[in-house]
Amino acid sequence: MKQVVRVAAGQGFWGDWLEAPRRQVDGGDIDYLMLDYLAEVTMSILQKQKERDPAMGYARDFIGAVDSVMTGIVERGVKVIANAGGVNPRACGEALLALADQRDTRGKLTLGVVTGDDLLPRLDELLSQGHALANMDTGEPLSLVRDRVLSANAYIGSEPIVEALERGANIVVTGRSTDTALTMAPLRHEFGWRHDDWDRLAAGIIAGHIIECGAQCSGGNCLKDWETIPDMWNVGYPIVAASPDGTFEIYKHPGTGGRIDVSSVTEQLVYEMGDPHAYITPDVVADFTSIRLEGSGPDRVRVFGISGRPSTDKLKVSIAYRAGYKAVGTLVYAWPDAMAKARAADDVLRRRLDMLGLTFDTIVTEFVGANATHGPLAGDRDDAPEVQLRVGVRGPDKAMVERFTRELIPMVLNGPPSVTGFAAGRPKVEEIVAYWPALVDKSVVTPTVEVMR
User: Fold this and answer.
1) Nearest CA among 266, 259, 249, 257 for reference residue 301
2) In whole angstroms, what is the distance from residue 190 CA to residue 168 CA?
């Protein structure tokens, strides 16, 4: 058994820094590279892509990430774990094998592809069996929006990833696994943690939570003393160095920018934490109040004392459904009287929409540069050198939303003066995808692992 296992974070979301995976593998010794691509809205975007092309539906950036670290995988034995499979993990695996053919590494890659999280084809069956999939926030049954559901994916835990590793995979691709499972699985695999070793499993989950957002725990997006964080242009992404007893350290490669200290790790810990006594995952319920942090060297934090308890009999399900259309447009007004002009333009626009009989579920105005961030707390700002008027509408009728887009831009010449800067042209009408969180019995979700070579 290894006494230390190093898991490096290389992506915190789909769209994160493309250089990070290569920098993590080339920057020093690591055993695993963890790449987290998925968020709630990402699944619906990928499902729409798959509807247009059955070979799509996965995070395509992942293929380039693997290509950038191929030498580390085949020569140094670095293993890669990612939830880049989205709604089409097998297609993602096939794209990786095609890449391996191009790079002449086909015989050196073993892919573990985890499926079973996609419940979309089974929704009607589950509803007929009495699984209401009620909205966790409102209690409403899924039947209210069933005809508009776009995607439905259960959050699966670490067990199928561990199985893939035990079957020899050096790249594991999942669909909608929990973000934390991507880090916990290799620790569970390497250290042989039992399925009921709650404290150690909780430690693995906390390790995953700390690094799941990439550089957010190593200086990026940090509030405390943000202006003193060194060399953000060269920010180092975090790495977990874990021990068999469940203690671990968070650090980054030497010579990289950013900062890892108790403060930066604490900020990440409270991100999307929920109930600090019960951070619920498919594997374990972790108690955040038990976590202890201490500095253990430059850019190094030791994490210990973590306790956990048995997981629940439910899995969270992320459901996305079509909820109408929206359009957002902007105009920038210059000094003098920028704020007064923007307010007047908003009034003119709303009166014209009323005159045309256009009604929307929502119409929202923000004055960027004055109150868009803090709303009413910003108070009155009449002295801004420039103000961006941003107006958004939403409603069920696409044609009505389209008509709104034709009313905004004419105000460059037929509204208040001094429109300047980048107006972005006529707004684009976009379909709204809404989020429906639900729970389902664990017994109805059976992840499967396919090994591809």
Assistant:
1) 249
2) 12
